[in-house]
Amino acid sequence: MNLPDPDAYGVTTATDTVRFERLLPGPIERVWAYLTEPEKRKQWLAGGEMELKAGGEANLLFKHSEFTDEPAPEQYAEMNTKGFPSQHRILDIDPPRMLAMTWPGEDAHESEVVFELFPEGGMVLLVITHKRLADRGEMANVASGWHAHLGVLATVLEGGGVKRFWSRIPELEADYQKRFAQD
């Protein structure tokens, strides 16, 4: 079996879609908890409550200072310390295998994110597909964010300490802009 690179770049699967694969320490219920439970989710992405049913609300609070000590770039400083609330809606759910939700974007554009979990022995393959992105610029921004967040998630699940996030974003965004310009 070819194992996914733990730091692999996301790939475009359509003109408005980017997909990531990460092999993470299991079991599947553990990874599911880090997607759905606020106290675990805030260690790598965002806290906040989710109504775990189709049509349910997911009120996320992105407060990156909860999972990294790195200083945020000036444009994100307030979000880093005070947090950024974001309203989402659960589109579909099949615990502990799949969670699909809306993802608000700029200018009221709404995209969709699907998290899928597949057991692989003692590991879990997490597949994130973010679709209906507005343009290549949004794709590069979203992809660099997911890439950095997934690095934090892997560190957390592996029991690691220091979590890099902000220091990765500029390089990742530049890389994704180049990659997506070639697609």
What's the arrangement of secondary structure elements?
Layout: E1 11-14, E2 17-25, H1 28-36, H2 38-41, E3 57-62, H3 77-82, E4 84-94, E5 98-104, E6 110-120, E7 123-131, H4 136-157, H5 169-182
Helix pairs in contact: 4-5
* Mean residue pLDDT: 93
How large is the share of residues in beta strands?
25-35%
Shape: globular
End-to-end separation: 27 Å
**What does the main sheet amount to?**
7 strands, antiparallel
Number of helices: 5
Can I get a quick summary?
This protein is 30% helix and 31% strand. The chain is α+β, with helices and mostly antiparallel strands.
Protein described:
This protein is of the alpha+beta class and 183 residues long. 30% of the residues lie in helices and 31% in strands. Strands 1-2-7-6-5-4-3 form a seven-stranded antiparallel sheet. The radius of gyration is 15 Å and the shape is globular. The two termini are 27 Å apart. The mean pLDDT is 93.
